[in-house]
Records
---
Amino acid sequence: MAFRFALLGAGRIGKVHARAITSDPRAKLVAVADAIADAAQAIAAQVGCAVRSIEEIETSTDVDAVIICTPTNTHADLIERFAKAGKAIFCEKPIDLDVTRVKACLKVVESVSGKLMVGFNRRFDPHFGAVRAAIDDGRIGEVEMVTITSRDPGPPPQEYIKVSGGIFRDMTIHDFDMARFLLGEEIDSVMASAAVLVDPAIGTAGDYDSASVILTTASGRQCVISNSRRASYGYDQRIEVHGSKGAVSAENQRPVSIEIANADGYTRPPLHDFFMTRYTSAYAAEISAFIDAVEKGTEPHPGGKDGLAALVLAEAALKSVREGRAVKVSEIAG
Amino acid sequence: MAFRFALLGAGRIGKVHARAITSDPRAKLVAVADAIADAAQAIAAQVGCAVRSIEEIETSTDVDAVIICTPTNTHADLIERFAKAGKAIFCEKPIDLDVTRVKACLKVVESVSGKLMVGFNRRFDPHFGAVRAAIDDGRIGEVEMVTITSRDPGPPPQEYIKVSGGIFRDMTIHDFDMARFLLGEEIDSVMASAAVLVDPAIGTAGDYDSASVILTTASGRQCVISNSRRASYGYDQRIEVHGSKGAVSAENQRPVSIEIANADGYTRPPLHDFFMTRYTSAYAAEISAFIDAVEKGTEPHPGGKDGLAALVLAEAALKSVREGRAVKVSEIAG
Amino acid sequence: MAFRFALLGAGRIGKVHARAITSDPRAKLVAVADAIADAAQAIAAQVGCAVRSIEEIETSTDVDAVIICTPTNTHADLIERFAKAGKAIFCEKPIDLDVTRVKACLKVVESVSGKLMVGFNRRFDPHFGAVRAAIDDGRIGEVEMVTITSRDPGPPPQEYIKVSGGIFRDMTIHDFDMARFLLGEEIDSVMASAAVLVDPAIGTAGDYDSASVILTTASGRQCVISNSRRASYGYDQRIEVHGSKGAVSAENQRPVSIEIANADGYTRPPLHDFFMTRYTSAYAAEISAFIDAVEKGTEPHPGGKDGLAALVLAEAALKSVREGRAVKVSEIAG
Amino acid sequence: MAFRFALLGAGRIGKVHARAITSDPRAKLVAVADAIADAAQAIAAQVGCAVRSIEEIETSTDVDAVIICTPTNTHADLIERFAKAGKAIFCEKPIDLDVTRVKACLKVVESVSGKLMVGFNRRFDPHFGAVRAAIDDGRIGEVEMVTITSRDPGPPPQEYIKVSGGIFRDMTIHDFDMARFLLGEEIDSVMASAAVLVDPAIGTAGDYDSASVILTTASGRQCVISNSRRASYGYDQRIEVHGSKGAVSAENQRPVSIEIANADGYTRPPLHDFFMTRYTSAYAAEISAFIDAVEKGTEPHPGGKDGLAALVLAEAALKSVREGRAVKVSEIAG
């Protein structure tokens, strides 16, 4: 019998998840909700599912799980509502922009033994997954240094910048999760530097567009993150891990990998446009992992505490930029 | 309204096409037929379609097109039957192992204005397609030399070798089609050398497992093909085209592209296992192109004459090996 | 007429420079001095030059320039002596481990209008030079983010660690110079994290073996440096620069670039062993640039103030690790 | 004591060898001869050696060996003269354009127990040498298929074309030697196709500029060669060897290996200009191997019979093009 989803939010990332659902033969998208009727209708028409209100979905008996892709400021409320409604929940990151609100939300989920998975899609990328597998298999010995390069092809619209919570909570948060996924030890302190180099309007909105971060664990393992909101050559997503016996890295991916040689040199095409094409298989694997966990009754990973941990690192990074010092995770996490 | 397929033959390549059909939202697999009931049943259960006999499919009014994946010796008969039945036809290569039989078959198709596409999937690979596009865009000037490296991960079973028509008709035939796709000019003569280096049993069956071919066009353009039935490092599929202004190449693909560095050096994983995973997107694009052509009423490409042309080259190559000389295509094609 | 060198110090780096001198047809090594007579004799025999004492070289009329490769604690004194003696001076980094001593030394050089070049060989590597040229040619627009990965194949002997001044002054100092070479703007502040992950004995000696640094310029440009004293896969030396219009990178170099493919994957050999082979052509180009500057009467680059600037960054990094905060360059440089 | 060379011929390849000699500390260039006095003088001035006539060199007691870089039609005569004069001989390929003349020459050398090495520089390239070492170490099992891609950056001057003996004797001859170096078995038959695609003037001169060759050994091992007289992207020199357990390849080399990424893609610089820079280290290693052999009294490799064998293959290839058939090596070699 099919695993039945309802999709809350029919925007860009909602479409990505709708497509991901169609790739798992166990999954079925039953309903979609969106404040913008046309957006919901578009997905419904394409997939062949119903348009319902959030209230209707809350009480739908033919829905096993919801995928929350609505604006960030609604995430925590929806998680609480649907946890109480007994639905399994897959929520896009972040749970909320405020650490205290996230903690309160997770308590509610826990109190009703809710199932919550948070959308850190990169863990499910086959290449990054293979990096982690190489570490787990002892191929590089003990992890010592992680380097994450993560650059968007271009900055988001100004309206989005304003509600995004800033580059650390919106963009670097994926890298913070990756660092936790790869370091093999919890992070102890955060140092960060950030600036406005891409677009002054981002600075006007109180945010940064270029950032560098050093994460350090208690034993001294280090992770360096380099972020930019703009890369002319495409969606730059690289990871490397240096260990006591060797190193493992995942290079960039491109949709077409030909090479043209002429008097100007040897040229390969640009990278993927953005996450929708770069992480197609990651989104599919992510949904499958969610279904696996719910069907087996195990805790979905990454879960609420992973969402919280990444948000804490984002807050620590912001504090580090503002105060020009290393910020202990314990200062934020309490 | 959906474009409705019936699948004839539920073996390895039949499964590949069944999966390809599910990737085009316009396409629907209505029925599957196979002499082995269990094989047909397995696909029917997975896709949710009917099991029917070939006779039933021939008269089915809910079938727009058939995909012929049965043994090679049935291809020509089935093409004729279904062309007469008014179904659009997608047939796996080769149409037949005998040039005369292929010609007769194509005459029947023509007489009833049938639509026939032949399964040269590699033309639809995004990387090889981009190679062709680079040529068409004038990026490398006039095509002069094509190099095709094509090696299977391992030899097929002995029973298959016996009915395959030999390495040139079974394996190199894809490379012959690629050469025609890329050279931009018809081939005039063929030189080939072949040997048994991989498995003596292949020689016992009267076939070769390692072959080198030079194709030359009337104006002197050359294509070199290197084939082996065994490559320990995976399914080796590379193309490069050298032209008057530059060159373009498509490198090998691998499912996971991490790199592990240690005292032994830098290691990337092996290539794809075989065509089922290497050409997943090519098979999907191939079916979409078939639907496009049939829906628009245009001639599907590659069509019957492409199937014939590749077979003629295979026969010329075999003759070249046996007689130790350059064989003119006109000697075979008549 | 030949440009005549005397070499002070016949150890590992002295040999590298002796070889570099032989590669410029203008240069001639006239004399070598070393406290260990055998070491001096070995180079003298190989090159066919004289063994002299430092005092003798100071008064030699057949010596145009000296190359100082003696232990670090003698550098500043020797620079002063030979500047006063009217010899052009090429000195291995660092000038001294103490910022105040360096400043005093540079004043002496200036007072006698001495010519001083400091041995930051990497600026002369053809690949890194091409990175800088690409920036200068506007190929990547404005520089925004620099990433430097620099890992030694293995830690130096304990005795060396003790007198080296620590990882930042001994090893990262090259990366600090590279950052200045590539950022196009002076560095304003330094954040660093460091730990002992490779060898506890290094910690016992009061040093670190693994370090991450963020350098930030006044306008917000950022450079991230990742250092380790041990890399099982060879001498890891990579640079990438991300700018407003694109990025440029220089990959690792290996002595032999074959690739072996088998069932385990595709393997290329390890990197160069260490700087002696990795930077052979850089050392040669460095000496040529020194001769060029002296013969033309221009200021050699990188000069004393570059040596000072890199040392200041090293000191700032160390202070940042110890105090857990961003350290302004002005705090150190005065 | 130094190993003393005289250089016969001060043209392009003569300069290459003059430079190679300076890279071996055992070697000394004593004299240079050339019909064009200025050419000889230029090298003499640069290296600091004497200009002598060929006759003078023949009787010079301070010359241990000659390097023959004169026009091809003088090679055989000079080899005979200097073999009789008791000098060790390094001769640029080919020994002569005529197989009979080569055989006669080798007999003379043998009759006086002369030492003769033939200039197949590519055997000494570190990358190609590592390919051979990987084979010898059993890394790829039994050799089955060799692929050689060899393209010059541009065609030679018309005057050179006329005296070169044609593309097979002048250019492919290096690839024939490489094939013999790598196949591990003598070649039994040759098939070739050739055309004029680059420059009609080459055709007017009776030569070809684009060629494809299949070499087959008695046991069926195959080597495919692809040649062009023009490659817009530089000097294209690649080798790959496919064996029973794996494959090994040597990729192209470039003087600078940076990569620039922007909206047009990822671009690396063109390859080396030509052999003078591509094979710098190969020429140096070649001279060292020659000195090694002469000093140890062993037979230099590759020697006269290797020069003959490659020439025989060239003649067989030409015959194959003209007669449209596989030509047995025994037809030419007698």
---
Amino acid sequence: MAQQHLDPPTGSVAGTAPRASAPLDEGGAPIGDALAGYLRAQATEFLRSLRQHRETGGAAGGGGESGDAARSLRRSARRISGSLHTFRPLLDADWSERMRPELAWLSGTLAREHAYSARLERLLGALNRLSGTVGLPGQGTAGPPKPGGLTVGAAKAGALLDRQLTLARTRAHSAALQALGSSRFHAVADSVAVLASEVPLAPAAGTADLRPLAAAAQDRLADAVTALPLVVAGRPYNAEALVHGLSADTAAQPQDTSWHQVRLLLRLHRYAGEVLYPGECPVDARLLGAGKALNRHRDAAEAAVAAASAARTPRIAPATAYALGVLHADQRHEVEAARFAFQQAWQKEAVRTP
Amino acid sequence: MAQQHLDPPTGSVAGTAPRASAPLDEGGAPIGDALAGYLRAQATEFLRSLRQHRETGGAAGGGGESGDAARSLRRSARRISGSLHTFRPLLDADWSERMRPELAWLSGTLAREHAYSARLERLLGALNRLSGTVGLPGQGTAGPPKPGGLTVGAAKAGALLDRQLTLARTRAHSAALQALGSSRFHAVADSVAVLASEVPLAPAAGTADLRPLAAAAQDRLADAVTALPLVVAGRPYNAEALVHGLSADTAAQPQDTSWHQVRLLLRLHRYAGEVLYPGECPVDARLLGAGKALNRHRDAAEAAVAAASAARTPRIAPATAYALGVLHADQRHEVEAARFAFQQAWQKEAVRTP
């Protein structure tokens, strides 16, 4: 089973041919030069996004062209960093070790603004849903939000979250702009510019088989998934995610950590696939479904923390606190729902390709 | 399909023979005399429980022998009332119409004390679960509650609910004692005493086939189930039950009504089965599972209302209100989980016996 995603796809979507193909050795295995090509392409994309971001002025709010550019910048930074990690033995060790934390710092800094904005949107959406002012998706009761349908508590909770998360987003925006003007960033950008033309492969790495390292990344993912409580997650309404919903420690929940870890390992596995089979369309429904579930898991977990943390604001009205309590529990149930969705997505393929 | 529960069981549990059998006509159909026998037996049971309740003094708290007697009294009152309803055309109309509301009043009055006590237990149990002070059942983490593990908010919410529901229970206990001493109750008890020896069947009802009326009760159940949103309920984590979790009207939710109605119709169907096949063990797993799910649905819905209503107590601390919000959402998710469980139980048999 560990090999299934490492072999080239036997049938692509509707018979379309791969759009590109990686350098192969005589036996048909993807080799180090494919990694170099991938890194060059991602570095080029990074520089293009950076140029675009500067031209659009990096407007606050995370939307529009500037938001697209920032997203694309993060996207290539993550892919470069992930590939350096997975294929570490094939790259110049010193250079690789210097580069990775810098890329992580950059994509982390750039991600924050968008995250706050998405979190606010998620929480306000949930408040409206919980107030019955919007229909649930796909149930024929959808309609435009009815203004004025919120209770005093829900409206005040929304205003409080809006205030807190907008402030956090504004600060993240300033921090991102500051980062992009810093000498630390310029050093990263210079390194990426070098990478775009000259990938520092280790000696003889250009002809090395990439598959063992990609397989190791997949094994790390498989091991981490095996350690997840998937039997519990597969039983709907297991009430596991809210088990510490009222415990004294309302910071990030320890039970979430292993799921977040799988999310990162799944991403590394996906990037390794992009390196090995660059022309392949992202057709693996299992990975896509599992990845989406884990993103939802992360988003809901962070939104639940934001609701709990807003409830600790001094001098709020009981009705506001009550609404935030309902909202926190709702988001923790989203966490549980996301785990169920992951279990279903993961299980599905395991049955189909034994 | 409508007939499946009306035919005698082809195979009982492990080959055990029915403990009793109902009067049948020449073609083997249960007849009106079976109804008379059932009503006499229930009336006798009612009188026995009443005697036991008086002897044990009707102590408050709903526990012990007195609680058993009250439960047994309600149990037979419900069965008499349900049978009068289902088999109305076979009974003296005037008598039947007089009797039913009186039995409903009695079992309602007697049920309240137990309901408040069970609701408090459910809510305090949930508060402990949500505080991570007890393990979830069946997950190997169960253990004794750890005292002092509650947050201030959860502890205060628990104390508030304890105060409010204990007061309500005490009042319900007094009301029940008062009811049992009232002339209205003595009139009911007299009627039941008459019923224990002489069932007022309509002319020629003694030999009438009971099955058409039992089938009609089953059809009413089937129709009500068909009207339930079972497709939505069968999709785990559909987020439907909490859709009005924060709406201005926090009284009983209209979306619950049709489920409560099915619960009552399921009970009538079950009692009709007891009349027709008195010796049959209660082996129909589908009906048992579905009935349990609907009881859980009702209990969770009422507990959610109690949490929301406690949150409207004036001058509570925000932390208390927050905990009550989490608790309300938790119980509404229990409502959703119960609907899912009902859908699963109902679906199961429908597949097994097409």
---
Amino acid sequence: MCRWLSYIGDPVYLEKLVFEPRHSLVEQSLHAEQAKTPTNGDGFGLGWYDERPTPGLYREILPAWNDPNLRSLAHHIRSGLFFAHVRASTGTHTSRTNCHPFSNGQYLFMHNGQIGDYPLVRRSLEMMIEDEFYEGRQGSTDSELIFCLMLTLGLQQDPHRAIRRTIEVVENEMKVRGATSPFRFTACLSNGKSVCAIRHASDDKPPSLYWRKRDDHVIVVSEPLDTESDSWKAVAPNHTLHVEGDLTISEEATL
Amino acid sequence: MCRWLSYIGDPVYLEKLVFEPRHSLVEQSLHAEQAKTPTNGDGFGLGWYDERPTPGLYREILPAWNDPNLRSLAHHIRSGLFFAHVRASTGTHTSRTNCHPFSNGQYLFMHNGQIGDYPLVRRSLEMMIEDEFYEGRQGSTDSELIFCLMLTLGLQQDPHRAIRRTIEVVENEMKVRGATSPFRFTACLSNGKSVCAIRHASDDKPPSLYWRKRDDHVIVVSEPLDTESDSWKAVAPNHTLHVEGDLTISEEATL
Amino acid sequence: MCRWLSYIGDPVYLEKLVFEPRHSLVEQSLHAEQAKTPTNGDGFGLGWYDERPTPGLYREILPAWNDPNLRSLAHHIRSGLFFAHVRASTGTHTSRTNCHPFSNGQYLFMHNGQIGDYPLVRRSLEMMIEDEFYEGRQGSTDSELIFCLMLTLGLQQDPHRAIRRTIEVVENEMKVRGATSPFRFTACLSNGKSVCAIRHASDDKPPSLYWRKRDDHVIVVSEPLDTESDSWKAVAPNHTLHVEGDLTISEEATL
Amino acid sequence: MCRWLSYIGDPVYLEKLVFEPRHSLVEQSLHAEQAKTPTNGDGFGLGWYDERPTPGLYREILPAWNDPNLRSLAHHIRSGLFFAHVRASTGTHTSRTNCHPFSNGQYLFMHNGQIGDYPLVRRSLEMMIEDEFYEGRQGSTDSELIFCLMLTLGLQQDPHRAIRRTIEVVENEMKVRGATSPFRFTACLSNGKSVCAIRHASDDKPPSLYWRKRDDHVIVVSEPLDTESDSWKAVAPNHTLHVEGDLTISEEATL
């Protein structure tokens, strides 16, 4: 399991969310409270949008609490739409190519959860990836595989449909191959203009997902960044949350 | 704070202690129970003696739970006297040169604790190090500094005296410079033939230290490796434990 | 392109070949003489056999000339059959999972060369890997893919046939998909008892491969470790070299 | 020895100098032409000024040619005053704290060269560092030591005098201690407003140093970034080059 956050709104320095809050993402890398494991020390990553057509990416295998580069970058990089992720491996290696966020063109993707019995279904799911996205696969995680499937299933054309189809395809393959562990899928996507977060599970235990809207920004997080608990709203299980560039928010069922 | 273990006895594969016990050192890197912080993810190290005149050393900045090299090395390296250490930084950087154990000639040293208000006294303590050992200082930790002081103060000639003198020198300098935080010093030394462990603090809270003797070996640890709690004995505060090559054990007051 | 060496014979410390010769493998990591690129700084690896049923493995993303752990391990590990490899990436990422040697059960494999137009044929070749070996694939290199194909094509039953079949399969797929760059394949395999080295190319430029037999050992290398040039013999293009445990040597055509 | 570049002028993306030129700094990390060693693979670093009061810093132990983070950061970070450095160690460890540039408050410093017989004089030079700067010393290089000396000797008050005094102090100490190797010192300093580059040696072989002025910027480099050789001017041996914020240039003797 992992912890992540996403920000959309008026540009801020990344440290404002990554380091400064009482229960910042870096704090969560040591002491997550709503995750199966408190420690998220198997690498981390930043992805951010600026004036360039594709997002910036900084991914590292050290723990997030431990990296002076992260501190300096978060102090100097300002963005109006960014992702940050701290990783707790569910089995695959700790390498930069297995760290989130993943990117393809203008898209960013990050994930908390897992495909149950991943080794059972990995190969057949990989065979469904379109060549153009298969070539871009650099690591071995189930998370990157899910992202490749979404791209294959029409993310650029119809994101909501691509998400739904990906969930169906993964769950169907798990069923066919006899997977007994659940599919847990709490993830975040962006095309650089809007943010889409997903909270889904094949059983009744989707990982936690919260959001908070203020005048000039929306934050979506695995768990709240501070103790103002009534300011954070949970996303309903098996729902997606869309945050448009003008901060309009909508929620709909994943399936 | 950190966690460490030391083994002396019939040669065994390092994994026997580093990975296999229920509360192995690698398990302690994620879930230490008797330390101020449960996570010891700021690097780790192995030091071991074999037929070579100086010990082998493997130190890495990744968390111990995260390193396939450590798993393979601990599976393949067998030793009759070895050290293993998982680090939780008390302020200095995460670099290999700051990871324990430290070595000099045939000596190994590792430490759990800290010199209180280290920045206050670092410089004047460093000035006391003899040139020959100053040159060998590679990192910036208080732990390596303590080791250099012990070497300066006659470790090769009279280890017990060198330990006592080092404690006196550190505590005196802390007093002179007005340090208000305590000196916590639970450490382990070896010359390749015997093991000497120290449990000391300038206040009444020396970090934990345990040992267990079996027929063919002695283990000294920050905290027990398993739940056979009556088999582990605590070293008394402000005492050193000596384990000779024939597994004879003696304990004496540090000061 | 990469540089590698393999040793079989009376046990020696690894440093004897990795560091000590005038043109040692570590020296070759900075100044290879018979390779397209002089610098082999994109990671390295050691694989060695001892009393354990499977080989030890140490792989790192730093340059080999730069790693104090490598120096200490090579000083302390002794083996009668080992591999060492310094990597120059031909496009894939620098991660430990992309470093050689690769291992599977008792097998070790390392490679210098490349599958021409790898992105064209990667996917269809990966589809030929048997499930059991596909699961073991951790990285994204063409080298590891070749190893998986050899395992699939009967390495355990008939190594010479598996090598020949792998070359045929790779070259056929390259032809079918219209690859225009050549297949360059100079590699080394071991089951822990004997060593098999391959020097092959689909054009007339197979990477260099040499060997030298002394009373108590045989060394197989990408390029000679010293300037006693008449003591090193080149393996003929498109031939494999077999070195048995008793140091018997035979050479035969790959196809 | 190392290679470095410094830019002052209209803001540009860092990749414009770090990656794009024919003989870019990253190209120089593999194939330096005017250095004793062609390979500068022992870490690298970026330092850049933006709207924040202190500069950003990204330092890494991997070779520069090998780091996807560097590529992304150089594509996304834009600055009107930045430093970039690729390192070839002259003996000290490869750790981030030994990578250039070094920073203190608003200052950046980077260096190519070395204090001859460094172990002979290291300690006595370190003793001259003022406490406030000694505390900030994180690594063990002669380069960082020189920076600490310049800060001690009044860099903030009178940079030219601080440089001259530092050279005198280092050369005097080398003489006193009987150092026989030369002091080579080609370095660059900035306070965020102007750039000061130094080309000095105690013998007649100061490392190379060039600059080029265009309408909207000045570049200072270890060696030219392209083959327009008549556009690059060499700084005279034992001279410093000052580039003001308005791109006014002046040169004066170091001593």
